[in-house]
Amino acid sequence: MIHKIGFSIKLDMDKDAYWIIDDYFKWYEVCELKLKQVDLESEEFEKFYHYVSTRYPNKITFHLPSDLLQDQDKYRCYLKMLFDKMKQFEGGFIVHVPVGKKNDQIGEAIIGLRRHVSPNSFILLENDNNLSANSLDVVFMMCRKYENVGVCFDAGHAMLAGEKEFEKYLKCITRKENQVYIKEVHVHNVINNIDHQPFANNCPAFAIKVISSLKCNYRLILEIKGVNPLTSEGLEQYKVLIRL
Q1: Of 127, 122, 112, the residue nearest 86 (C-alpha)
Q2: Total of domains in the chain
Q3: Which residues pair with 8 in a beta bridge?
Q4: pLDDT of residue 53
Q5: For a tag on the chain, would you pick the N or C end, based on fewer CB atoms within 10 A?
Q6: Which residues pair with 150 in a beta bridge?
């Protein structure tokens, strides 16, 4: 199956964000933008958001703070600023699944987030390094229960849990009833228990397992620190995936 492939980019409004995003979409089909340390109140961000949402609808997912579902009260002002600007956004918002919370608490957090999101957008729940495969089963239950909620599966995060746990993850995501909810997959290398590392000459075996096992239609995102997708190094990382 041919997937839409792109990179994860940390949004930096101090640089020429317009030029970067326009040049980026000449080469790639989809993008994850990380909003960490972005001033949501700034006029620059508001203008940039309106530009990309109009020019590139359904091509962008925004990665929200990793602990947002863990403590929504902490981010109440953040959410209000963000979604007041993004009422018409057509795309996804990625959040990490809170670890250690009960199912009903996670459900309440999802409902709280959905109140802010436009009907044309969706929420993607991502597994972090501490989420067990059994907890991922609960995440899929949430997807079946709530509208416009899906999964962003991070293969590297799963690998950090160890090979035995990784195999449990693989069994969970490849179930036919679960695959329909997988909307985005993040891949990167794991070296000496450090994730978000670049590929060598080939895609690591654990990432190939995930990509080859899933039969659904999803976005494939390279989440690699220190690699600019607009350089030859970034293009080489991209070529590793398209050779699969």
Answers
A1: 122
A2: 1
A3: 32
A4: 87
A5: N
A6: 124
